[in-house]
Amino acid sequence: MEKAELKKLIDVAAGRVPADLIIRGADVVDVFSGTVRKKDIVISGKWIAAVCDPSSAGENGGDPPRAGREEVDASGYTAIPGLIDSHIHIESSYVTPEEIGRLLVPHGTSMIFADPHEIVNVCGLRGLDYMNRASKQTKLDIRFMLPSCVPATPYEHSGSRLDAKDMVVPIRYPEIQGLGEFMDYTGVCSGADGALDKIILAKREGKLIDGHAPGLAGKELDAYASAGIFADHECATADDARERISRGMYVMIREGSACHDLKELMKAVTPENSSRFVLCSDDRQPATILSEGHIDSHLRMLTAGGIDSVTAVRMGTINAAQCFGLSDRGAIAPGRRADITLVNNLKDFQVHRVWIGGELVAEDGRYLPETRRTDISPVRGSIHIGDFSEEKLKMHLKNGHVRTMTICPGGVLTKEEFAEVKIDEEGNFVWDPQQDIAKIAVIERHHDTGNVATALIKGYGIRKGAIAMSIAHDSHNIITVGVSDDEMAAAVFALKEQEGGIVLVGNGQVIERMPMPVAGLMTDQSGEWVDRRLRRIHRTAHEELGVNGDVEPVMTLCFMSLAVIPELKLTDEGLFDVRKFEFTTVER
Amino acid sequence: MEKAELKKLIDVAAGRVPADLIIRGADVVDVFSGTVRKKDIVISGKWIAAVCDPSSAGENGGDPPRAGREEVDASGYTAIPGLIDSHIHIESSYVTPEEIGRLLVPHGTSMIFADPHEIVNVCGLRGLDYMNRASKQTKLDIRFMLPSCVPATPYEHSGSRLDAKDMVVPIRYPEIQGLGEFMDYTGVCSGADGALDKIILAKREGKLIDGHAPGLAGKELDAYASAGIFADHECATADDARERISRGMYVMIREGSACHDLKELMKAVTPENSSRFVLCSDDRQPATILSEGHIDSHLRMLTAGGIDSVTAVRMGTINAAQCFGLSDRGAIAPGRRADITLVNNLKDFQVHRVWIGGELVAEDGRYLPETRRTDISPVRGSIHIGDFSEEKLKMHLKNGHVRTMTICPGGVLTKEEFAEVKIDEEGNFVWDPQQDIAKIAVIERHHDTGNVATALIKGYGIRKGAIAMSIAHDSHNIITVGVSDDEMAAAVFALKEQEGGIVLVGNGQVIERMPMPVAGLMTDQSGEWVDRRLRRIHRTAHEELGVNGDVEPVMTLCFMSLAVIPELKLTDEGLFDVRKFEFTTVER
Asked: What pTM was estimated for this model as a whole?
């Protein structure tokens, strides 16, 4: 804060000079006292100067009433602090930071803690720099966590690699709050050198270390918590939550497009421990944002589920500010940033107006500022597939006795199953309309290595053409599935041409596409466009290509390469058995 | 933390290597969940590795039980986190930092936030450096706040002056958590330049700014809070507390030797706002510490007063850690420092054992480590009274119609009263046994200016001899009161010879003394010695010199120069009318 800004703030608070804005007569949630009272909110520039009785004559009886250059009548509405998402991957919304701001702010969100794990896997620190620059074009306050596990596993080629030595400079950036979700919990719990170096670095710089520890319990969880990891968004059960809270970790209640933990985790909330819960979405697609909202939707669900509404508001505001050590956020109180969300009431949380830093930025669902776009050229052209050709998709099976990655619909797990499939004279897999088994391939796309690995997927349902995508967790190589090598190759080449994204091929032709020029992960389009296009892609995949009705064609595919989720996954280096943590063969 | 230390901590937590210490079977207070459960506390070096069920076989059923190189049976006791005093002036205990550690630690205190306001007023940053070095000789973790208001007022000579420019370097010291109590609330609320410079500096360096705002309310309190001041220990009423909490400030519940706010302030505590309260002592003399304790005594009082005992423990532990932004303190949980206090129960809070950083440092009231003393020579020899002589104590009154500073027993306020006194032919005051009015003088003692100011004090009761002290808030010039100029002068010269402290003169001779070679503010003796000597001084003052029974002879005198507390006070520059903020005359 500049001195003149502080001086003016104090002068406005003291009533010596008029406020820039007074929001009059709202029922204001006081997150510190746990009360809701009719108040005037007095604002100077970006900051809240005072929250005072609307009774006109000021608190000291004889004082003249406060005046504002602008005054807003908010009676009938309830004012809550700007909402905070404690853990989100912007990339998972397939839109850029500017656009995520346009989507989230009308839902009352003023701040998010984004982990640019996906783009950094592809582009390294260049990806972080792009995200950081782009985030300056939105009123949403986007803070970043430095991705801690790039690559996520050593069993694949990623676009980049971040060791502790590479983090020394970026960990100090003011926008960086700390290390992002430490997915390598095995490394932490075993005290592996590389993990320790990163943790020591973050501690030395006074930065936070976020967690990711699905299923961890007992001594392993002790080991993880003892390293100083401050939060976890991977609790699946109320007991998971309780165990983490007892160990001093914050629990991030996640409600995303794919993962729905809120209803289970709210069972763990008590008046005694509620201050240790914060809210997050992790991954939230435009369709979910447009239809259900963002953290406002968490508040509706929590309140509907019986959590006291002020407690719910706290989880999405002051608790998050405390959890991240920010003293100027999370509350409507003097000296805090004027991030204020007006809702109709504390049950429906229908957002009427949103101020961020004292500026009205959204009204009745519309984001008001003009959205300027950041130059994406530094993160374009990310598809480097070397000498890829249809030939490389050929399998050379010795026989038709194979293991398949079998999809578990509605989740990201696979099962290992066994089957008999047709092969041609060269040992290549031949798709058979009689059984729901198709070829799947991962093509390295970062370093022109020409690496291609193939396997067989069961339960996806494709009966025609091919699908290819450059979103494939966490290294984001190209993943493709199809009934013929030539259509799979066509999809891959089309993907390269459009700089990544999603391509659907039918009858040898591209029949649907979503270009993602931003690192092959994000479109440069609006959330609404993404939503419409994704619906079309889903429809086409189901109706034209025959993908099974209970399979989400895009999301399912993009997790088939994530070699930390059991049982079988495919990376550009081969078929991986996650249970044994080793590569295996297609032939059983 | 070093890497090897982190590695070992994780290994111990994971159960791969034996713990250094296991405290077995205590009822452990979980400040996060608000529960109390029988647990084993597993410690690696300075750190807590795990808090686990004592059921032996470990959490995962088949795991072998954890082993410790040392094991302590704590069954029957309750373990709470090490206690934290959020605001204290060590100097007010008249002992050095090493000694305050020896006194406080056996009461379960592991950390204090000390504002070395007094010694910095006398010695400047040299005083801070001494305190900092001395604090390294005790196991008590002493963090410092950089005194924000030196001198406290412009109406006197202090030993030093700290403007924002002088703070640029020390504010960055790792031991410095922020700016100490911002007593110049007038400066803050009026937006005075010097105050703003200090606030901007602290904000820029990411440091806290502590408050001191007695009686501030309404718009003035808004102005004060809007500047970002995070806490206040000067709440006199429950309403004061509520007003500050609503404005986002922490309330420090003070219970010191002189100020007793706890019983009133606990009325403001609710389950909704209790996380915003922390505990402090501000000023606590050895007599109080030895007879009543420290923060443990706050806990007894809170619990006796009906506050839930876990809530009380939180105020003295995790709330303080959160308030100061320390993520490794305030809880018995993995990754936190092993600061653990064993008490008999959550009602009496009788402290049995205390570990700080995993080391047993106190047992049944005894501080166990050897106390090494820091060299005090850099802060010795602080009495510089220039050409002081008895002659300078002479008053030159034009007549006997005078105003008196009249003591209000039991407090630090004075009233202005008027009287008729005897004067000699030169206009000097002549003590009259018929009325309780004595001469009082303040002698500048920092810069050899030779400044002496005199006035008349009523209600102190002295009937014989003189008393002189080098503790006189906040500039700590010499203050003396007596019935004759020669005895007052004798007391002053004796004070110089003993390098400050307290001197009592009767019949022209020194009859009692407490030398305070450390900046004229602290003894180099034990707390027990200070307690005994102070009792003797009180007895001698009352019995030999005739000081009124309802007047605390030392404490009363040392506040007679504090020119911010109404109505009349005396500085080395003259008699000051605090109500008008201007100097006045002894003659009415």
From this structure: 0.96
